Prior knowledge:
alpha+beta; HIT family, subunit A; disordered N terminus
Amino acid sequence: NLYGNIFAAIGSVNETDTGSEESFAFGPTAVVKASQVFYRTAHTIAFVNHRPILAGHVLVSSIRAAKRLQELNEEEIRDLFCTVQKVQKAVESEFGANASTIAIQDGVDAGQSIEHIHAHVIPRKPTDFGGNIDQIYSELQKHDKSEHISKTKLRTDEEMLLESTKLKTYF
């Protein structure tokens, strides 16, 4: 089971109350805990990754459960990409990066592992993967796929809370 015991989402998280015990439904089976969320708008939520490829790898998702980008309306698309831009600035600053990989795997055939539209925002440094910076694409291809899950460690709730708390200070 990719995400262990999953419980139904309860309520939602908002910008002014991200410390609550509410959670966010991410795809048909996964739940993002409130402690993972560091930013929220009317249509979009940003949260730390339970299994980051590199330090600072976070996710930005529509709040509405849309599987594909084409299912979002114009307002939701605008909000998603404006949030990606704000989050990119924050994670680059927090993790000392001067570039980012921003990726959307839009559909199963594009490598999407969670059926909920989301963007990966990954701050980048020239030393990533021993200088082989394009390795990010093969890492994204493997990310959260069942055959590779056992090779990467899940972060603890405490680790994710610490990161989300730091990132909240940018908003």
